[in-house]
Design brief:
hydrolase; about 30% strand; Jelly Rolls; Glyco_hydro_2_CS; carbohydrate binding; alpha+beta; beta-glucuronidase activity; about 20% helix; Glyco_hydro_2_AS; six-stranded antiparallel sheet
Length: about 600
């Protein structure tokens, strides 16, 4: 799916701003809401989560449907063209109405969808978007369907507990807040009726030349022309076929920390579109991860789209700030834990030379909940396949994306063969969908790794480990020994491996001369101990700590105002360990760290 752009042949209207809004119920909303303006609406900013924009638990802990409205007038001149309504993401599911008519639905909260709206347009239009934030056994991420929470007096007797009314609520099986709403931009764009539908670019390197395989999918008839321009605006090659190979002499390569972007300018009849891309290759060889045939070492983070007030909504200023802080730390990468991030962030990483592991929202697939049902409990298989297809279709041309992650921390231990039977076809699907055939992985949790059949089947073994926190918490000496013992097992498999999460909750400003859990000193010493083990392992190709910054979670006794494992506070103030990593990563090169 092409990212919307405005050019000589395409108009673009951003619908960001203040929309009218009403909370609804779990069972649904009134059909009249889609046909006439609200009488007494709330006002909500788009794009952003709705949870933290208004005070009160009815917004923060809302369960079920909410409805957005916006009046639209489309300039008459634009109605002569093909008019498309596009959503960057709506969490978790959406029903879109125009003038009371349902025009499209979408499941999944982290990928774009669009619909052609010409048949539904009137002189004045009412756009209505209904959003369902419920998570369950059929959504990604997963929510628990075990029951409901109770409310009542502080000290009820047994009989009153029996008589309490259940209050349905989301019970997420994931450790980040279930923010909901229209999270990414809503845009109207136009194209001619004969238009460019999609562009696929597969780069390669031959000697000093760049090889570019282009596939242009068009709708209708027209003459096709493809021109490739370098960053100086010089045309370096051209073609006239919908599918073919172009050669860029003495090509500039896209590399981590040294991004170089070419522009593929495509015209088809009256339509035109410009697709940026980079010349780079990615492959796994033995225990090495090669970018442009050089062994790369991942230095970076797990991360979240999370900030005060915006929640999970797009914040481009914060994206710029975060990449600036990564550069300050000499980091080179992050994983989109635990869902695909905004297209705006991916575009920025292309420009800045930040490497990305692109992950689906398949988090919470802990099949060990019920050993008798196992996989039969979940209704995710078809949706999981759709998410993989859509994520790769969206991000296939991004040079920053070097690997796909199909899930985070599923329970692959209790039913090893059933786990393999679920995930191996998804691994194969990811390879089949990607024109560049990038490596595919899955991130495993702290489990009985010897029983795991899924991780060894991946191209790269990615594991989350919390020795020193959830396991042997406070005892760094024995944690280090346990970590060393496990690494001997992975070394025998002969595959590249990397740690994708490790960390310790740390309260900013809490200090102790003797490092204790939750102090800034303990977080730093924790990382010193774990990194000493990683440095001894030549098959380890990277370290991505958890987390870049503190983030919001559901309320609970395990979390004080969210998850505090960040190197930075939620408002991006560095903790002591940030300075440790800044020095460490400055001394570790992007390429050739482990020969």
């Amino acid at each position: 799916m092409l990212y919307p752009e405005m050019n000589a042949s395409r108009a673009l209207i951003d619908l960001s701003g203040i929309w009218e809004f009403q909370l609804a119920q779990a069972e649904g909303f009134e059909e009249e809401w889609t046909k006439v303006p609200f009488e007494h609406p709330e006002h909500i900013a788009v794009p952003a989560s709705y949870n933290d924009q208004k005070e009160g638990t009815q917004f923060r802990d809302h369960y079920g449907w909410a409805v957005y409205q916006k009046k639209l007038e489309i300039p008459a001149m634009l109605k002569k063209e093909r008019v498309v309504l596009r959503f960057g993401s709506v969490t978790q599911a959406a029903r879109v109405y125009l003038n009371g008519t349902l025009i499209c639905t979408h499941k999944g909260g982290f990928l774009p969808f669009e619909v052609e709206i010409n048949p539904y347009l009137e002189e004045e239009n009412l756009l209505c978007v209904a959003v369902d934030n419920r998570v369950n056994y059929g959504t990604l991420p997963i929510g628990n369907e075990a029951g409901a929470a109770f409310f009542g007096s502080d000290l009820p007797d047994i009989e009153s507990v029996r008589n309490m009314k259940a209050r349905p609520q989301n019970l997420p099986n994931f450790d980040f807040f279930n923010y909901a709403g229209i999270h990414r931009p809503v845009k109207l764009y136009t194209t001619p009726w004969n238009y460019i539908k999609d562009i696929t670019i597969v780069p390669d390197i031959e000697g000093t030349d760049g090889i570019v395989q282009c596939q242009i999918d068009c709708e209708g008839t027209g003459d096709l022309h493809v021109e490739i321009y370098d960053e100086a605006g010089q045309k370096v090659c051209e073609g006239f076929e919908p599918e073919g190979t172009l050669r860029i002499p003495d090509a500039h390569l896209w590399e981590p920390g040294n991004a170089y972007l070419y522009q593929a300018c495509v015209t088809f009849g009256e339509d035109s579109y410009t697709q940026s891309f980079g010349i780079r290759t990615v492959r796994v060889e033995g225990t090495r991860f090669l970018i442009n045939n050089k062994p790369f070492y991942f230095k970076g983070f797990g991360k979240h789209e999370d900030s005060a007030v915006h929640g999970r909504g797009l914040d481009e200023a914060l994206n710029v700030k975060d990449l600036s802080l990564m550069n300050w730390l000499h980091a080179n990468s992050f994983r989109t834990s635990h869902y695909p991030y905004s297209e705006e962030m991916m575009n920025l990483c292309d420009r800045e030379g930040i490497v990305v592991i692109d992950e689906t929202p398949a988090v919470g697939l802990n099949f060990g909940w019920d050993d008798t049902e196992g996989f039969a409990k979940f209704r995710t298989k078809e949706h999981h396949e759709d998410v993989i297809r859509d994520m790769i279709a969206r991000d296939k041309n991004h040079p920053c994306v070097v690997m796909w992650s199909i899930a985070n921390e599923p329970d692959t231990e209790k039913q090893p063969q059933a786990s393999y039977d679920y995930f191996k076809p998804l691994y194969d699907l990811a390879h089949a969908c990607d024109p560049q055939d990038r490596p595919v992985t899955l991130v495993i949790c702290q489990n009985d790794y010897i029983r795991d059949l899924v991780a060894p089947a991946m191209d790269v073994i990615c594991f989350n480990r919390y020795y020193g926190w959830y396991v042997y918490g406070g005892n760094l000496e024995i944690s280090k020994e346990a970590f060393e013992y496990e690494m001997k097992y992975w070394a025998e498999l002969g595959k590249p491996a990397m740690i994708t999460e490790y960390g310790a909750d740390t309260v900013a400003g809490l200090h102790s001369a003797t490092p204790n859990m939750f102090t800034e000193e303990y977080q730093m010493e924790y990382y010193r101990a774990m990194n000493a083990v990683l440095d001894q392992c030549p098959f380890i190709i990277g370290e991505q700590m958890w987390n870049f910054a503190d983030f919001a979670t559901i309320q609970g006794v395990m979390r004080v105002d969210g998850n505090k494992k960040g190197l930075f506070t939620r408002d991006r103030r560095p903790k002591l360990a940030a300075h440790y990593f800044r020095q460490r990563w400055e001394e570790i090169p992007d390429f050739g760290y482990k020969k």
